[in-house]
C-alpha cells in the first residue's frame, strides 16, 4: 500500500486512489489516518485540493508524523481546481424521457450540487459538467425501498448484509433511499436502539436512509420515547408485530394504545400481520407429525391467519382513527382485506415485497433442504402460483401502494441453525438489489403496470406516505438529485455469483430480467454506471421524516373535526339521577341469608325478587324467578298430587 505521492508512477494513478485532507501545523505533528485497503491512500495537506475529493472511511489505521507518511502536493491553479470540482458536481442528462408518476415528457435534466436545477429542452447550462447521453432511455426518480433489515441481530445470528454492502447493492439495483427498521432488544429503550442504528449506518451507508422503529413492548416510557423520536429525531413511523409470540408480539390492547399514540403525535402505524399465538400451536402440530423441514414453515402459517390478523388490525386502526401501513402482504386474502378497508374510506396503505411478486412458496417443498430454507420468510411465500400476479394487479389498481424488498439475508450456514427444526431457520430473503428489475419484468413487461405506475409503486408513493415528497420520488426542479437512467431493452440473468449483496444465495437465481438501471445518480453523483459501482462508504445521509404528512393526515384531521361535531349532536341532555343506589355489599349479604323457599304459595320474601307485587297482590310476571342455585321461590309449596281426570280436550285414551 503506497503512502507517498512522490514519483511519476504514483501521480499517474490518482484516479485509483482515495484522498483525505488532514491539516497539520508542522511536518513533525503526529497524525492518525484511516485508509481504504482496496486502493492506494494519499493524504493531501493542501486545503485547496482537499475540497476536490471525498473522505474515505475504513478500519485500516497508520500512525506516524506528517513528513514520514505524506508528501505535500504542489498547489494547482484555481481554474483547474474549479473545472475539476464542477465536473464532479454538475451533470447534464440529455435526450431521455423523464418519467414521473403523473406523466412522461421528453426533457433534459441538469443537476448541480446534489439538486435538480433545470428540467426541459434547450437548457442554458454552465460549462464544466459531465454529460450523459440518455437518448432512447428513461430518466426516473431513484427507488425508495420502504423496509430493509441491515445488520440486524435476529434469531440467534446477524444478517449478513451490513449498511455498506446492503446500500451498495441497493444502488446497483436503482434504489437511492432505504428505510431500515430499528428493533430494540428487551433491555434497550427506543432511544438507545435508535442511537445504535444511527451509529451503525452513518459510517457505512452509500445512499440516503431513514428509520422506522419497532414497538416490541408497551409502557409509559415507550410512549414518551415515541414522542421524542417523532419530534426531535425525524421518525414518523412505528411498527408493531402480531407474530413472533415469543419475542416481538404485542396483544390487541397494547396495539390499540400504540396506534392511539401514533395518531396523537402524527405518525404512521405499521404492522406485521400474523396470528402469532395460533401459528405457535400449528408449529407444534407440524413437529408432532414429523414435519421438520422448510415446508413446515408454510404449513403452520395458512393464508387465513394472515387475513385474520390483517382484518383484526384494520379494525383496531379504525377504532383509534390511526393511519395504517400493512407491511409485506403475501396472500390474496390479506390483500382483499386491505382493499375492503380502502373502499370503505379507511386510511390504510398496503405493501407487497419483491419475493412475493417474483417467486412463490413451491420452493419450500424442494428436495434440497438448503434451497427450501433460503426461501423461509414471514409471512411465508404462498404456494399458489397465481398469488404473485394477483398482488401485481393489486398494485396496478391501487389496493396496494408500495413495494419493499424486506431485505433480510443470511448465508447457508446461518440458515442451517434450523436443519432439524424449521422453527429455528432464520427468517429472511434477499431483494434489495433485484426489486426494481423484478417489478419491471413482472409488472411492466406483462402489461399490468405502465411506466408511470412503476415509478409510483417503486418510489413516489413511498415518498408521499413517509413525508419525503417532493425532495424524493420525483424528477423536478428543487428535488434531490437521486435518479436513475433506465434501459428497457437491457437484459441480465440474476445470479448469486454476480450480485452485489453479501449473501451466498439468490432466491431469483437464473431469472431473466429485461429492463435495468444502467446509471444510478445519488446526491448528484454518479454512483453506478454500466455495471461499475463508484460508491463511497459513509457518503449517504440520514433523512428526517416529519409527522402529520398531508398525504396521510389531511383527511384524518378533517374527519376528527367532523367526528367531534357529530358526537356533540348525539349527546343526550338529561337531569341527573337523584334516586337510591343499591348497596351491593348489603344486597349480597341479605341474599345469602334469605331462603328462597316459601310455603303456602305465599309471595317470596323481600330481596328474593327485584320487582314488587302487582296492585292485585300477585307476583309480577315480568320478574324472573331464576337463581344461580336453580331454586324457585315456590319450591317450598305443597303441590297437588291428584291426577287430572278430565284434562282440557278430553282423555287421551278410552272408548269413543
TrEMBL record:
Residues 588-610, 637-656 are annotated as: Disordered. Carbamylation allows a single lysine to coordinate two divalent metal cations. Its EC number is 3.5.2.2. Residues 138-526 form the Amidohydrolase-related domain. GO terms for biological process: pyrimidine nucleobase catabolic process. Belongs to the metallo-dependent hydrolases superfamily. Hydantoinase/dihydropyrimidinase family. This is dihydropyrimidinase.
Amino acid at each position: 500500500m503506497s503512502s507517498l505521492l512522490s514519483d511519476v508512477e504514483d501521480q499517474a494513478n490518482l484516479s485509483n486512489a482515495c484522498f483525505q485532507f488532514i491539516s497539520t501545523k508542522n511536518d513533525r505533528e503526529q497524525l492518525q489516518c484511516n485508509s481504504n485497503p482496496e486502493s492506494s491512500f494519499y493524504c493531501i495537506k493542501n486545503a485547496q485540493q482537499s475540497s476536490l475529493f471525498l473522505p474515505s472511511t475504513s478500519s485500516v489505521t497508520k500512525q506516524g508524523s506528517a513528513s514520514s507518511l505524506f508528501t505535500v502536493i504542489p498547489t494547482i491553479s484555481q481554474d483547474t481546481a474549479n473545472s475539476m470540482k464542477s465536473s464532479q458536481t454538475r451533470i447534464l442528462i440529455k435526450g431521455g424521457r423523464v418519467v414521473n408518476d403523473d406523466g412522461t415528457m421528453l426533457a433534459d435534466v441538469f443537476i448541480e450540487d446534489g439538486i435538480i436545477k433545470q428540467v426541459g429542452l434547450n437548457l442554458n447550462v454552465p460549462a464544466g459538467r459531465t454529460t450523459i447521453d440518455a437518448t432512447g432511455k428513461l430518466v426516473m426518480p431513484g427507488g425508495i425501498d420502504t423496509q430493509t433489515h441491515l445488520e440486524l441481530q435476529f434469531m440467534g445470528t446477524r444478517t449478513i448484509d451490513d449498511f455498506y454492502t446492503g446500500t451498495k447493492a441497493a444502488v446497483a439495483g436503482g434504489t437511492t433511499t432505504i428505510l431500515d427498521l430499528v428493533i430494540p432488544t428487551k433491555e434497550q429503550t427506543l432511544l438507545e436502539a435508535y442511537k445504535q442504528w444511527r451509529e451503525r449506518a452513518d459510517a457505512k451507508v452509500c445512499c440516503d436512509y431513514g428509520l422506522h422503529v419497532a414497538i416490541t413492548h408497551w409502557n409509559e416510557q415507550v410512549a414518551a420515547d415515541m414522542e421524542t423520536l417523532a419530534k426531535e429525531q425525524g421518525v414518523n413511523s412505528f411498527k408493531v408485530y402480531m407474530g413472533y409470540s415469543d419475542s416481538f408480539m404485542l396483544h390487541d390492547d397494547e396495539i390499540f394504545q400504540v396506534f392511539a399514540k401514533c395518531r396523537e403525535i402524527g405518525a404512521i402505524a405499521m404492522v406485521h400481520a400474523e396470528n402469532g399465538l395460533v401459528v405457535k400451536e400449528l408449529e407444534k402440530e407440524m413437529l408432532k407429525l414429523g414435519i421438520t423441514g422448510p415446508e413446515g414453515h408454510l404449513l403452520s402459517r395458512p393464508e387465513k391467519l394472515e387475513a385474520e390478523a390483517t382484518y383484526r388490525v384494520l379494525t383496531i386502526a379504525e377504532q383509534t382513527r390511526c393511519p395504517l401501513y400493512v407491511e409485506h402482504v403475501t396472500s390474496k386474502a390479506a390483500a382483499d382485506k386491505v382493499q375492503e378497508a380502502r373502499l370503505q374510506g379507511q386510511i390504510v396503505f398496503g405493501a407487497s415485497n419483491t419475493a412475493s411478486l417474483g417467486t412463490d412458496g413451491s420452493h419450500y417443498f424442494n428436495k434440497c433442504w438448503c434451497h427450501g430454507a433460503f426461501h423461509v420468510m414471514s409471512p411465508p411465500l404462498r404456494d399458489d402460483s397465481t398469488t404473485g400476479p394477483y398482488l401485481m394487479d393489486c398494485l396496478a389498481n391501487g389496493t396496494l401502494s408500495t413495494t419493499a424488498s424486506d431485505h433480510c439475508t443470511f448465508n447457508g450456514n446461518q440458515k442451517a441453525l434450523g436443519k432439524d427444526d424449521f422453527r429455528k431457520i432464520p427468517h429472511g430473503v434477499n431483494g434489495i438489489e433485484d426489486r426494481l428489475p423484478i417489478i419491471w419484468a413482472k409488472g411492466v413487461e406483462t402489461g399490468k403496470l405502465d411506466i408511470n405506475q412503476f415509478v409510483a409503486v417503486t418510489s413516489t408513493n413511498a415518498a408521499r406516505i413517509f413525508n419525503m415528497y417532493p425532495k424524493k420520488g420525483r424528477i423536478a426542479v428543487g428535488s434531490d438529485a437521486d435518479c436513475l437512467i433506465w434501459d428497457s431493452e437491457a437484459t441480465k440473468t440474476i445470479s448469486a455469483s454476480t450480485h452485489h449483496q453479501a449473501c451466498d444465495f439468490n432466491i431469483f437465481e437464473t431469472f431473466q430480467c429485461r429492463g435495468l438501471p444502467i446509471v444510478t445518480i445519488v446526491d448528484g453523483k454518479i454512483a453506478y454506471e454500466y455495471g461499475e459501482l463508484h460508491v463511497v462508504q459513509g457518503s449517504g445521509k440520514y433523512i428526517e421524516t416529519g409527522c402529520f404528512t398531508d398525504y396521510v393526515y389531511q383527511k384524518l384531521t378533517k374527519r376528527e373535526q367532523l367526528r367531534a361535531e357529530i358526537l356533540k349532536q348525539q349527546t343526550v341532555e338529561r337531569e341527573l339521577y337523584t334516586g337510591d343506589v343499591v348497596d351491593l355489599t348489603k344486597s349480597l349479604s341479605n341474599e345469602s341469608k334469605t331462603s328462597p323457599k316459601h310455603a303456602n304459595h305465599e309471595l317470596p320474601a323481600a330481596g328474593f325478587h327485584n320487582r314488587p307485587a302487582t296492585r292485585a297482590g300477585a307476583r309480577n310476571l315480568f320478574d324472573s324467578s331464576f337463581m344461580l342455585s336453580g331454586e324457585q321461590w315456590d319450591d317450598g309449596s305443597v303441590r297437588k298430587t291428584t291426577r287430572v281426570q278430565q284434562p282440557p280436550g278430553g282423555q287421551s285414551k278410552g272408548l269413543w
